[in-house]
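Input set for joint prediction.
Command: fold jointly, output tokens.
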Amino acid sequence: MPEMKFTRDNLAEVLRNRGINPTHQRIEIAYAIFSRCEHSSADQILALVNDRASETSKATVYNTLNLFLEKKLIREVIVDPSKVFYDPNTDPHHHFYNTDTGELTDIDARDIRVTGLPPLPHGMATEGVDIIVRIRSKAA
Amino acid sequence: MPEMKFTRDNLAEVLRNRGINPTHQRIEIAYAIFSRCEHSSADQILALVNDRASETSKATVYNTLNLFLEKKLIREVIVDPSKVFYDPNTDPHHHFYNTDTGELTDIDARDIRVTGLPPLPHGMATEGVDIIVRIRSKAA
DNA sequence: GTCCTGATTAGACAGAGTCCAGAGCTTCGT
DNA sequence: ACGAAGCTCTGGACTCTGTCTAATCAGGAC
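tokens >
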């Protein structure tokens, strides 16, 4: 995502470019995810979308998030056993995860090098490498 | 865990060393986790334990798994949004995750080096670094 | 307007995990 | 041996995240 203002019109365009029919609800959901440059969970997005304007159902939020995932418009981050976070940043990157607060912070992947990985099992291909650095406030 | 036969007697000793009262149920649960050198989910463990001998309740399995986690007897692996896997291997290591089959494979951490990580946010300490290599069968 | 297709909806449902109040074991003192 | 105290275990109710379904709705083509 290059830096740009996320207006609803822009987002409609982005959706169209990915082959997603930009309906009112989808635009609102995209707006909720992208304007807030953070990692949100499905229920946060549901709450955000329903704060303003017309009601959007839980089913639509989940459907839409899965659609966005499929079209690689967003990524999912699995760090908490109880819920998935959705990440508007699709550039290669990793995460700090604050286990006290649940806060996620991006780590740009450009400077990261991982060496010593064993060869993949036969006939397998890498789909992605996720690095999660779990951190905690030092004062234990 | 050094290589050793996991008899119920050994396991009782292991639990005691960690300050865990080795009750019948806890030993059976430990046995299920350690004899099977794989990554099991809570429901698999529940099924394994109830295959043989006296019934153990779901609540006890969850309580015990959390107790083992707390006492650092096992680790949890969070890769699948729908369930947690419990890992009998507490040595530093990472994982291959086969997204087709759900299969988890250990990667010894001894040879792995990660360079280029940014400094931790102020006042934070690292709790652990998890690397998950998501893999998939090459023939798509 | 009418059709057709795809999107949305409410609510039922499923599965993982937690909570709680009661019952069961152990241990210990008497 | 008895009773009290303190863990531990249990079934079942409950919560929460996420999915499914059947019905409704919106919007474009004609």
